[in-house]
Write a structure and sequence with these properties.
With 459 residues, the chain is mainly α. α7 packs across α13 and α10 runs parallel beside α13. The strands form two sheets. It has a two-stranded antiparallel ribbon with strand order 1-2. A two-stranded antiparallel ribbon has the order 3-4. The protein folds into two domains: 321 residues, no CATH class; 122 residues, no CATH class.
């Protein structure tokens, strides 16, 4: 199996010190960070995208600088196919999460169209992120001659792959509270076994041949990618929050510490999934396949049908996760208590267009001073500030913050002093009276834990 640099069409080109897409990547990273720090309306919700795309462009530029070739310089069609199949690949895990409930999204965009575009753009980077890091490790000379004693892959080993694959697909759905870690193998064991059977790139065959380079690069690259993913997500407004049973207390960023072990497995699963797709739908053509393994591609109706199925599957899962996995949407000024249309207009004219900016302005200037400057009722502004402080806390949103206010929780410091289970029961009663959907107990635990850690509003 040869990598990107082994393909005959991927001939080195003149190495510029910085490629144009490297400069673009740095620019996108800088713009995203600036928008995040300034809390710009709208941009603060989508900062993750320019930051992540900028980072990936920079990675590719570094690979190109090291080798004179990269995905963007020589394999753009490959990158396009990779991004397309990345969306249904990740949505398989989103579909599992509808049963598992191990993460949820906050401050999602209100427009269904914009939410869809954001989702596709974000999920299209999953496969490239896994593979770019592995390629960069190889370009840096990592693990290129890593070998070990061949492991016989006879009937027993293949039976193990089959059993583990079956369990990984089924048990997270049957026994979600305890079998959820197996979900990361749902796209690895069976696809890798199929790849081995038909002659596509397979990690099982690598073990049999004593090759450890590809496996270790994928594992290290996945861990690297996961660290950057979680770092960018932690500071975002529109983000995901984990509520993994038994792992809610010990977190790095939003991820339970042990959860980082899932990223190396994700990269391995991504490789097996994409190798299978390339073999059956592209005649084996992928950046990891040698020319001798390429075959005639299947008829157009085969890959067109597969693409149509992938799109329909993605649409179905998207609609469902918008209903079940999105727990809050971007807050608006007019949703805050004490803010009517007139007050919202004055705030906007003063350069305070969002609850985030209102919260920051009150924290900096104080309620009375800001109220006098904008000719607003101080009591109404104080109510709005308290509502905003709760709504912004761990992406709670204005509706859940309203339920908290109805229970007597008026500040984030109040959250730190209550028991999550007791508060959850009070919220259930208030939500039933108000005829609103209640929060999940796992959400309430997130709010209380964050309040106890800082005593103030946290992203």
């Amino acid at each position: 199996m040869r990598s990107l640099h082994d393909l005959p069409e991927a001939r080195p080109t003149a190495r510029r010190f910085v490629s144009w897409w490297g400069l673009l990547g740095v620019t996108l990273l800088a713009v995203g960070l600036w928008a995040l720090i300034r809390d710009l309306e709208g941009w603060n919700a989508v900062w993750y995208l320019p930051a992540w795309y900028g980072y990936l462009l920079l990675l590719d530029a570094v690979i190109h600088r090291l080798e004179g070739r990269s995905f963007l310089s020589h394999r753009r069609r490959e990158l396009g196919a990779m991004m397309f199949w990345s969306v249904p690949f990740w949505l398989i895990f989103e579909a599992y999460n509808l049963v598992l409930g191990n993460w949820y999204y906050v401050f999602m965009l209100r427009s269904v169209l914009l939410h869809g575009i954001l989702t596709v753009a974000a999920f299209a980077t999953v496969l490239p992120a896994c593979f770019f890091h592995a390629e960069l490790i190889r370009a840096l000379g990592g693990c290129q001659r890593l070998r070990w004693r061949p492991i016989p892959a006879g009937r027993g080993m293949r039976t193990l792959w089959l059993v583990m694959g079956t369990l990984s697909v089924a048990l997270p759905l049957i026994w979600p509270r305890y079998a959820f870690p197996l979900v990361w193998g749902a796209t690895f064991w069976l696809p890798d076994l199929a790849n081995d059977k038909v002659g596509a790139p397979s990690l099982l065959r690598d073990l049999e041949r004593g090759r450890g380079d590809r496996l270790v690069r994928l594992l290290l690259g996945g861990l690297w990618a996961g660290g950057v993913w979680e770092l960018f997500n932690y500071w975002a407004r529109c983000k995901w929050i984990y509520t993994v049973p038994g792992f809610e207390e010990w977190k790095l960023f939003e991820m339970p510490i042990l959860g980082f072990l899932g990223f190396p497995v994700l990269a391995v699963a991504a490789f097996s999934f994409y190798a299978m797709v390339c073999h059956f739908l592209r005649g084996g053509r992928s950046w990891e396949a040698a020319e001798r393994e390429w075959a005639a591609p299947p008829p157009r109706w085969v890959w067109a049908g597969a693409a149509a199925i992938a799109v329909l599957f993605s649409l179905a899962v998207f609609v469902t996760i918008r209903q079940q996995s999105v727990h809050s949407r971007r807050p608006l000024l007019v949703e805050l208590r004490g803010i009517d249309a007139t007050a919202a207009s004055r705030l906007r004219e003063a350069g305070i267009p969002t609850p985030e900016r209102l919260f920051a302005a009150v924290e900096e200037q104080g309620v009375r001073r800001l109220a006098e400057r904008l000719d607003l009722d101080p009591e109404a502004l104080d109510r709005a500030h308290r509502h905003a402080a709760l709504a912004l806390h761990k992406g709670m949103g204005t509706q859940m913050a309203s339920l908290l206010l109805a229970t007597g929780i008026t500040e984030v410091t109040d959250l730190a002093a209550v028991d999550a289970g007791v508060l959850f029961q009070r919220l259930l009663a208030v939500a039933e009276q108000a005829e609103r959907p209640p929060p999940r107990l796992a959400q309430v635990r997130v709010w209380v834990r964050a309040a106890r850690m800082s005593g103030t509003t946290r992203r």
